[in-house]
Amino acid sequence: MNPVSPSFLVPLTFPSEPKDGRESRSILDISCSKSSASYFDYGTIYAFRKPVQQAQTVSQPAQTVDPPVLSVPRSSRSSINSRSTSPSPSKAPFNVTSRSRIVSGITAAQVEAPKNYVDFDDEADKLKDMLKGRSHKERPSPASAPAKRGDAGPKSLLSATNSPSHTPKSLSTPSSPLAQSAFPDESHDLALLCQIIPARSGSISGILLLHNNTLLSVLQQSGNLSPPQGTPNQEAAHDVWIWTHLQFFVVDHTPVLLACASLDPNSSHGALDASDNGVLEKSHIVLLELRANHEHGPYEVHLEKIGQWVKEGPASGIGIYSNEGSASLFYSISGDGTLAVRPLSITPKGSGQQQAEPAVHPEEPSAAAAALSSLQIFKAINPRSTEHLPASSIPEVKKTVGRVVLGEERVVAEVVKDCAEGNSLIGLRARVVGSERLRVVCWTEKNLTIFEYGEEALLNVFSTPVSLIDKIEWVDDTSYAVVFKNRVEFYGLKFVDANNDEIREGSSVEGKPRLYASLIHTITTGAYDALHIVSTEDVVVSKVGQDGRRTLESYSFRLTTNPTGSGTAVWKAAALGREPIPSCFLALNMGDVLLGYADGRLCQTSLTELSAPWPRRKKLAKESDGALAGAITALHIVQNSRTKERFVLGGADDGSIAFWSVDTLIMCARWTIFTTPLARVVDFPDDDQSSSSPLMRGCVLCISEDGTIAVIAVDGFHFLYLIPGSAFPLPRICLGDENILLIYADRRARLWDIKTKEFWRSMGLDKAEELIAQGGWKDVQVNAGGCLPDAALEGFSGSACTLSLDLERFISESSTTARLISTGRDQTRAIYSALDQLRLVLSMFLTPGLNTDIDALCQEKLGIPASGVLAGFSSGGSSCLYNGAHSRGVWTISGDVSAARALSITVILRALSLFDELAESASVVVAFYAASLAQAVGPLYQPPSLTYLARRWFDSSNELRQASRILFDASITRLSDEETIAVTEHWQHHLPCLQSAADRESLSAALALFLCGHIAAEKYSLISSSALTDISKSIALYLHDEQSLHRVLAIDLCSRGFHIWQHYIDAMEILRALFTLATSARKEAISAQNAGPQARLAVLQIAANNTALFMTTLTLDILNPSGLEHRKAVMQIVAFLIRKRPLVLYPNLPRLMEAVVKSLDPNSTWNRDAVLDTATEIWVMSVKTFPTVDFHMASQRLAVGTSEGAIVMYDLKTAIRLYVLEGHKKRISACTFSPDGRRLVTLSLEESVVLVWKVGSSFTSFFNPGAPPRQGHGGSEPFKTLSFNVGEEAHMTTAESLTLVRFEWPADRSVKLKIRESTLTFST
């Protein structure tokens, strides 16, 4: 089964307001600045590159064997610091003071909230004390727990913008982010390329650049927590892991990612006894096989979890040593500094390796069943698919884990000395030297140690006392960089003898050579936020200057030109001004947008005004009368069920929330409730009978980032009570009649009585599931967008000035409206509104400046307005927001981005073409973007990805499928012969006929058939016979498989290349399958890829291009069907062709009519009755369509004219041919029965002759059945021969003769013949 692809979502970034009327700069520049980082940063990544004309992307060069791990030092979760406005811990959570109830007007009084974090081990007593108003002895909060060295240290440059997923922003009221003031353009060596936003926000702990720097793998500390029911074997486990390290290795020629996690210090086993010296610290290890190929497109990057286990020791001391000459080794350094290795291998997929259920080790009961965060690894820059990997703990005792086989562990030696209290291992970096040795540098709080491992022994251990190290990176085999808070020291390794004299590595000397490190030079950087090592002489850092602008500085050490290593700014963010900027968007519909600002104000404007570039934008339509104290971070829509009035429920970063009227933006109520910003809102309308608890009806649950819940009644704005949060996320809420059950990510649950406002009990997940199973509970959709408008435009998490457009839904709704027939003013208004919206959205995707003629056409003919919106790219849940609006730049990023942009433009233009006056101009613009971009953009142009377009064909609406097909066909045309052959040869091996039965329906197999099939249909002369055979067999395979999900693909290929496939497969069987599909589709099976309409189109196409074979099959199947249903299907095809393609049937009409007549064999009553209705339909339609066919009802006679000049007479009662009338020498143009059925008039325009035949029953016909009636004279001559001459009007094509020639009978013996405008009257 193929995964369901998400909708075609496009992030749209809107321009920010400039200062002093000057042109604004991109919001991405602003978001990199210090003052605005807290409002835009949700663990996102910023990518920079050289200017486009240099065509160089700034990135870390990948190592051949072991690329550097760009990881962020591990940090514990931040706690919630109290503030002056924070609630008192002694306040009972359900007690509400009188000032908390809003009667009229607005109150600024802040609701007193309890301490949000409650520890589970003593939560029952604590909460009982809190409910009684007594204080309780506090356990250290997460922030007060001792953090390891490096927690607050600088991070990797690529993850400079990370922020904890559950850590709040500033708790005191922060200064609002300010809009940038315009300043002269500065020339820098780097340009901000894009902002990469993961599918889920969270602190980033590791980044890897893979696949020639086209694949970005990112590890987040928490990611998406596994649902509690996803780990059924984890009993009584209350631990949560924090993922800290991500590494890339090649094991047995298999690329793998190694992710490591440490226990959350807030979990039940996270805090270790100081006497343990870190020995009992545990790490969770997950090994994933990486399968990535850029030719497979954005949906073909696979991460398969092949093994996982729990290991004692820190996560920072784990890695894999891959030696070409021997088996790979899994190495780890324990908490006491001991190095241990284990052989590691990966069994082939499908080898039958079974994963046994883990046995719980007695000494680690909880670690064997720990609840884990899921590992989220996603593709960005050139986005690939997102893999959410639910993790479950497997103890170390299992030697075989999944496809990973671990050998016996062998302790090598103690490599880190004196791992006593306060000197635990912090980090480790390994590098393979040559092909035989593993060179490792690791550091503790006080020491730096370098050792080598090879030939199953520990070699060359070197240690030196160093403190305050932030991180260490290998630069090459013999040099490394030690990073401190304000400087980078570069060291070189060398071998020395007993006298400390340098010697060559491998030289024979007395004694054993020792490894020694010497300082090369130091680069002083000053304080910074993130740092990246480029070489031994170059460092790039990110820092924020006194003006609040983030800067990237390059420090280069050159003995001759720059011996001090001074820095040079290579990029600087936009300057900040004084005007507040938007911090949150909410689209009410496709026309109106709410803007929450950093100063707490709420405004409303139209999408048209919001999209216009400055200074064209006008004033905002509405502005709120009151503001919150902080920057607005969340907006939701709720409704008063009694009055039906809608309200905006917004939250600020200071924990305050407020209600505004949607219609007037008048503030109705305001509280400061939380210590973290509002995250989610769940409403329970009064008329919602599905709610289990009547006590909740008419209320909303306001849930903050830390899981604190405020219950508010919308009618009257009554603040009811507050439920405290937890140190762990709140993924699930269950509601009972009088109870609410909160289930947290660490698999613990709390039960509250919402009637008495008391805390009942805390329980494990298993007990909570038992309680829910008893009935009476309703799962509350915590993460659903229930309080958001149902519109094609949605809010976008991760960037304030960005909205997400569901383009597929927008096009579908707009096209439906555009096709309406206006019957009133409202419909006319809706049609013109849809046209305006299409023009506006199209302006966001077009790239003016590529061609002046196209620009003029878009502006003057299509009426496309100017736009300042930047369209991004989404794939697999992750998004990229691209900086700048250079017309050529967006087409130079990647094939996927080019394909998505071209597809967006094409599908919108096709929707515009529904308006007749715009159709021609829209077609011209479509042709430009489909076929002429390469010449317009230049040599840096990235052509659309064939695989991206093919994938969209599979899972999109009909509008998107047609647009992707246009672009796909144009892209195939541009392929050179060499590229065509290369693509086909690559994908041929993935064709369905070459796959196992289990893999034939896979996405890669379907894509292979799509690509190879359509390329072969266009350029079959370049394709080998073996490839054509495999393609044909694959088409037949899908077509004959009734359960196949890809039959529509096979049908489509049949319509395009049947003349090719018929040489390699049974063509008649293919036609018969198409006949069945074209006539047996049911309405309930209608979908975006409905097989019925597609099969009918294929039948029409084949009938036109392969008429001889088609007609032979059609006739044979009517006369000799495989079954009655098949005969009916074939006859329905005949009726269908008469309606749609009469000229295709015309040359073979006599054969078909005879076959239909014979199908009514009176000797087989059952068969005759079954097909009689279809046969009657065929004759009725034939008489109406073809002048050469006529039927007389009373006598049940059917006359059919042939191209040879004969008339064949059939008796439908007996289903036999009666006789043949032969009087014409050339093709018959028309025939007709007289009203009494005794005369038949035939016409031949080529002869200019009308013949009259006696066809009534006579006395002689009883003695000579089957013979034509006597015509009144001897021989077989017609009864009358009437010549005429109408000149040139008799000259006409076959198609014209179907409509321009007709008979009329004013009387039984008088007939009128009309040829074009001429009318002839004859007596019969």
Describe the fold and architecture.
The structure is a single chain. The chain is built from 25 helices and 65 strands. With 1324 residues, it is an alpha+beta fold. A hairpin with a 5-residue loop joins strand 39 and strand 40. The longest helix has 21 residues, at 825-845. It starts with 8 loop residues before the first strand and ends with a strand. The N terminus is likely disordered. InterPro entries: ARM-type_fold, WD40/YVTN_repeat-like_dom_sf, WD40_repeat_dom_sf, WD40_rpt, WDR72-like.
| Contiguous uncertain segments of 5+ residues | 1-5, 18-24, 34-41, 53-124, 126-187, 223-237, 270-279, 295-299, 353-400, 1083-1088
Structural class: alpha+beta
Q: Which sheet architecture does the biggest sheet show?
A: 6 strands, antiparallel
Radius of gyration equals: 39 Å
Q: Please tell me the overall pLDDT.
A: 77
Overall geometry comes to elongated
Question: Which band does the percent of strand residues land in?
Answer: 25-35%
Spatial gap, N to C terminus? 70 Å
Number of separate helices: 25
Percent helix range: 10-25%
Beta strand count: 65
Write the layout of secondary structure elements.
Blueprint: E1 9-13, H1 27-31, H2 34-40, E2 45-49, E3 70-71, H3 123-131, E4 155-156, E5 191-197, E6 204-210, E7 215-220, E8 241-251, E9 254-263, E10 282-291, E11 302-312, E12 318-321, E13 328-333, E14 338-346, E15 375-377, E16 387-389, E17 400-401, E18 404-406, E19 410-414, E20 425-433, E21 437-444, E22 447-454, E23 457-465, E24 471-476, E25 479-483, E26 487-496, E27 502-503, E28 514-524, E29 530-535, E30 538-544, E31 550-556, E32 567-572, E33 582-587, E34 592-597, E35 602-606, H4 607-611, E36 622-623, E37 632-639, E38 646-652, E39 656-661, E40 667-672, E41 678-684, E42 699-704, E43 709-713, E44 718-723, E45 732-735, E46 739-743, E47 748-753, E48 758-764, H5 765-773, E49 778-780, E50 793-795, E51 802-806, H6 807-818, H7 825-845, H8 852-861, E52 870-871, E53 873-875, E54 878-882, H9 895-912, H10 916-931, H11 933-937, H12 946-955, H13 958-974, H14 977-988, H15 1003-1019, H16 1025-1040, H17 1047-1061, H18 1067-1080, H19 1091-1105, H20 1107-1119, H21 1124-1140, H22 1142-1145, H23 1149-1158, H24 1165-1185, E55 1189-1192, E56 1197-1201, ...
